[in-house]
Amino acid sequence: MSSFAITSSSVSSDVIPRAIKRLFHQASIGDQSYRFMFKREPADEVVAIDCETTGLNLRTDDIISIGAVRIRGDHILTSERFERVARPDADMRTDAIKIHRLRQIDVEQEAPIRNLLPDFLRFVGGRPLVGYYVDFDIAMLDKYILPFIGIELPNPRIEISSLYYERKYGDAPPNISIDLSFSAILADLEIPSLAQHDAFNDALMTAMMYVVLRDKAKRGVRIPRENNQAVFDPTGG
Q1: Which residues does residue 75 pair with via DSSP β-bridges, in sequence order?
Q2: CA dihedral angle for residue 213, residue 12, residue 100, residue 203, rounded to 10 degrees
Q3: What would the pLDDT profile of 15-63 be if each residue is shown by its tens digit?
Q4: Strand 157-159 relative to strand 129-131: parallel, antiparallel, unpaired?
């Protein structure tokens, strides 16, 4: 989970275009051995993911670690996890090192991200991908996946900040201050804060958020709002 400024909002606004794109990808996939990505996975299974990167520029920055964990129903399957560090092509900048605590020397012996893709794609299969501002993570992954198999990730996406917004602010009056930061979600859902900007820890906390928010939605439970809301801060600050 990057702490650089991210201003994405809900990822559900282009559901129809994505459905059309999924059909196009299914017909045009370059490597037929990856057609399993379009297979319906076991019911009620999703994968929480997180990527640490050298920055937020999709063109010039690279992934340096990927964390993912499977969720089945209300159970987080910590024994079914994906955790890898990759050697980026981009230089490791000082500001990024301060966040994810991985130095050039820590990654120089690791495989490049393209070598990790087969295992990652088989791990996620066709399951929906859950994330915090998941569009960014998927866009970074697609930078490598598209030239590798000829398509982008076709998996449905579930945005944690959107689920949280619906439970807390979905019935809010106009002009209320909104805080969608990672720390605010953790606090409201009473989820323990693990060491952040570690890809697997962030994926695990995201998985816990998903399970709690899913349960609240099933039971019709909303998250209480204070009279004085914090100012809007979507960046996790």
Answers
A1: 72
A2: 40
A3: 556 667 666 666 667 678 888 888 887 889 999 999 999 888 888 888 9
A4: parallel
| 122 in Cβ contact with 93 (< 8 Å) | no
Please state which CATH number belongs to domain 15-219: 3.30.420.10
Structure tokens at 215: 């349960």
Nearest-5° Cα angle at 116, 111 to 117: 145
Integer Cα distance of 140 and 233 in angstroms: 23
Token reading at 58: 């999709």
CA angle (41 as vertex; 39, 149 as ends), nearest 5: 45
State pLDDT tens for residues 131-178: 999 999 999 999 999 999 888 899 999 999 999 999 999 999 888 999
Name the pTM for this structure: 0.80
Residues 6+ away with beta carbon under 8 Å from 166? 217
- The bridge status of strand 45-53 relative to strand 129-131 is parallel
Q: Dmax over Cα atoms in the chain, in whole Å?
A: 55
Answer for the pair 91, 76: CB distance below 8 angstroms, yes or no: no
